[in-house]
Amino acid sequence: MILMEELIDITIRQITQSDDRDMLRQLAEISMKGNEYDLADEVHWKNTLSHFEQEFAEFDGENNVFFIAEQAKKIIGFARGSRRKDKPEQWWLNGLEVLEDYRGRGIGTQLGQAIIDELSKPKISCLWAHIAKNNIASLKVAQKLGLRIITDVGETIMGEI
């Protein structure tokens, strides 16, 4: 259990090309836990780590943004967004995860707001998100950020902020 006093030293910051690539392992682990995959599942682990390695290799700060929440050099959450190739004025919020012990304390909302604030600088037209209906934590964060539901089909909600 994490105490509120322990949350004081949390930093939300944008990653840069100079960040240590070892952080990718932490990001992949957070993603695996958030998607309820067993860390011992080697196939999912390799795929998830490969996904983050590819995203980091393509990171340029102009067509994608990536924020992390850290406490004492430990990554406890992240949010990433990328420019839509077909509509460059629009972006996707394509990942927001916070470790379970840190949820419910506004960290996800802070990460989402950091993405919105960064993307507001070039005056984007909107930020899109696909969220699984059973992902209650992400739905709550999206609601706090002002998500307007566009479609509600099957197991997924799509909206814009």
- Spell the H/E element sequence: EHHEEEHEHEE
Number of domains: 1
Instruction: Show unreliable segments.
Output: 1-5
Largest sheet: 7 strands, mixed
What's the CATH C level? Alpha Beta
CATH topology name, in short, is Aminopeptidase
- The chain-level structural class is alpha+beta
Could you give the count of β-strands?
7
Mean pLDDT: 80
CATH superfamily: Gcn5-related N-acetyltransferase (GNAT)
Rg: 15 Å
By DSSP (H or I, 4+ residues per run), the number of helices equals 4
Q: For the terminal residues, how far apart are their CA atoms?
A: 32 Å
In the sheet with the most strands, the strands line up as: 1-2-3-4-5-7-6
CATH architecture tag: 3-Layer(aba) Sandwich
Approximate shape: globular
Summarize the amount of helix as a percent range: 25-40%
* SS strand fraction: 25-35%
Description:
With 161 residues, this protein is an alpha+beta fold. It has a single domain (10-160), classed as 3-Layer(aba) Sandwich (Aminopeptidase). The protein has helices at 23-34, 42-58, 107-120, 136-145, and strands at residues 10-14, 64-71, 74-83, 90-98, 126-132, 148-153, 156-160. Strands 1-2-3-4-5-7-6 form a 7-stranded mixed sheet, with helices on both faces. The N and C termini lie far apart (32 Å).
Write a brief caption for the model:
This protein has helices spanning 23-34, 42-58, 107-120, 136-145; strands spanning 10-14, 64-71, 74-83, 90-98, 126-132, 148-153, 156-160. Residues 1-5 have low confidence and may be disordered.
